[in-house]
Amino acid sequence: xxxxxxxxxxxxxxxxxxxxxxxxxxxxxxxxxxxxxxxxxxxxxxxxxxxxxxxxxxxxxxxxxxxxxxxxxxxxxxxxxxxxxxxxxxxxxxxxxxxxxxxxxxxxxxxxxxxxxxxxxxxxxxxxxxxxxxxxxxx
Length: 139
Hints:
The protein is mostly helical. It has helices spanning 2-14, 38-48, 57-60, 66-69, 79-90, 106-114, 122-128, and strands at 17-20, 23-26, 117-118, 137-138.
């Protein structure tokens, strides 16, 4: 299954397709050599005989740093960003605790650290005809 996905992704790159936040578009330079790229050949060879071609697995699916996989960026962040993360870990917060830090990404930890519980003014509650206990929000 993963080889099929890898094949179609690489074949799309070969003809100039690019994946963007707004969808797939033509925008990359296509492979005009008439021969499949080394990576595409490796995918085809691996799909034909996975046992004999196991050494090609790293070429197709490169290892990802565990810290990046867990969205921990302090090892590659700027000094100021590291300082912000460190400050968030030492200051009290309503929604996250220092014990949560290993379990969530750095970005989410800092984001949730900034949240504060709030209640909308009673005029807004009256206008919507909602009881206050049903209207909890964050700001």
